[in-house]
Amino acid sequence: MTSPPFALVKKKKYGNVSSEEYLDWFRPFIKEIYRVLTKDGSFVLDIGGSWVKGSPTKSLYQFELMIMIVKEFGFHLAQDFYWYNPSKLPTPAEWVTIRRIRVKDAVNTVWWFSKAEFPKANNKNILKPYSKSMEDLLKNGYKPNLRPSGHNISDKFQTDNKGAIPPNLIDLANTESSSTYLNLCKNYNLEAHPARFPIALPELFIKFLTHENDIVFDPFGGSNTTGEACEINNRRWLISELNEDYLKGSMFRFNSPFSTLNNL
Fold first, then answer.
1. Which of 117-141 are b and which e, b meaning 16 or more Cβ less than 10 Å from the residue's Cβ?
2. Phi, psi dihedrals of residue 8, rounded to the nearest 5°
């Protein structure tokens, strides 16, 4: 489970390459990810889109990356997910807020890859609460009939499965502005990672695709949101991260003695 630097037009402090260079840059990582992944394991990649420099048109790099991972390295695309973040700022400003010729870009693609056609997965682990209408249907019953689309809704539709199966559209705001992690980074004069995904995102896939005590690896660890999600859900974890401040700050997500910061 990981979210690498995106191929954004604007350079970021944590490092990012251009969309033209991105596939070549990512190839060595994919090779090693495939090597260490278990046969029934999964590789989940959160990757945001980008725009063509100087143009109100979109780059295709994340789709080209997905095709490369499947065609060149033998992964299966188990499913595509789309993370809608309603709290994203209206960017790119030139096209959205200045010229007003585009709407804000608020969706990331999240690719779920696997070595096998049937990787370990169980959607019963991520069921959502039923809607009020579904609760009423379970309580009052439902008369089986054909929908306008022609689909047959049988009496099994009213079986209580203890929750609804979630869709592949993830509606999740990323609004963290004050947290233990951010406050302690400030107190210890450490740079907080500027592009943290919300803990609910890795947690969804960790619960869906792994069992307790399985090992989850994040090769672009950042502030280690993935590791925190693993700790909460009784998974073992490993991360790698090049930026020392991000690595030190990641300790604030856990109950480690802060004095050990000086030993890193």
1. eebbbeeeebeeebeeebeeeeeee
2. -80, 150
pLDDT tens, residue by residue, 137-180:
666 766 666 666 666 665 566 667 778 899 999 999 988 766 88
Cis amide leading into 119 (omega within 30): no
Q: What angle do CA 242, 38, 81 make, to 5 degrees?
A: 75
Of the candidates 1, 16, 19, 107, the residue with the CA atom closest to the CA atom of residue 55: 19
Marked catalytic residue, from 19, 46, 50, 250: 46
* Cα–Cα distance, 23 to 18 (Å, whole number): 10
189 domain residue, yes or no? yes
| 158-162, 225-229, 256-260: range with highest mean pLDDT | 225-229
Active-site residue identified among 3, 19, 42, 250? 3
What percent of the chain has a predicted confidence (pLDDT) above 70?
83
The total number of structural domains in the chain stands at: 1
User: Parallel, antiparallel, or unpaired for β 42-48 and 107-114?
Assistant: antiparallel
Based on C-alpha coordinates, what's the Rg of the chain? Answer: 21
> Is residue 150 included in any domain, yes or no?
no
pLDDT exceeds 70 at position 12:
no
Tell me the CATH number at 205. Answer: 3.40.50.150
Q: What sign results for the dihedral spanned by CA atoms 44, 30, 249, 212?
A: positive
Range of the domain at 54: 19-128+165-263
Residue 148, in any domain of the structure: no
4 assigned to active site: yes
Q: Is residue 56 annotated as part of the catalytic site, yes or no?
A: no
